[in-house]
Amino acid sequence: MTIYITVEQVDALLGPTWAPHDQKARAVLMTNTWLTNLGLPEFDPVPDDVVQAGAEVAREAAAGNIFAAKETGVLSKSVDADGVSSSKTYSATARKISAGESFALALLSQYLGTGQAKIVRG
After folding, report:
1. Which pairs with CB-CB distance under 8 Å and at least 24 residues apart come from 69-72?
2. How far apart are CA 36 and CA 5, in angstroms?
3. Residues 6+ apart with CB under 8 A from 107
4. CB neighbours of 69 closer than 8 A, spacing ≥ 6?
5. Nearest 10 degrees: Cα torsion 22, 23, 25, 27
6. How many helices and strands (H and E) does the chain possess?
7. What is the chain's pLDDT, residue by residue, as a tens digit (122 residues)?
8. Residues 6 or more apart whose Cβ sits within 8 Å of residue 116
């Protein structure tokens, strides 16, 4: 795992109250794992926009919005009570993306490849 951000950096960007003190180290660990799993390049030093994205994700991680528990294997749920029924079907891989995670991905978009390579013929 690559270290993109530290607790001290998140405190500097978001203030010391972004998470309870006892949750900060785990939130930053989760953030560095999340950033590493995106396949970002190695940086020396880490650019400011990557640090800002990490801070946004750390706040979401502390709130339980990153690597949250998810239900798998169930694609449909239905409820029937006194003749009133409701049903919803979700993809087994569907999940809600938090505002902070979405903002972080926008900040990181220039570093995330499209899977295509530019070819220049000479």
Report:
1. 70/95
2. 11
3. 49, 50, 52, 53, 56
4. none
5. 180
6. 4, 2
7. 899 999 999 999 999 999 999 999 999 999 999 999 998 988 999 999 999 999 999 999 999 888 765 555 556 677 788 778 887 766 656 566 777 787 888 888 888 875 555 566 76
8. none
Residue at 78: amino acid letter: S
Positive/negative CA dihedral, 37, 100, 55, 42: positive
For residue 1, CA distances in Å to 18, 89, 121 come to: 23, 35, 37
- Residue type at position 120: V
Angstrom distance (rounded) from CA 76 to CA 13: 42
- Residue 41's contacts (CB-CB under 8 Å, 6 or more residues apart) are 111
Contact 61, 31 (CB under 8 A): yes
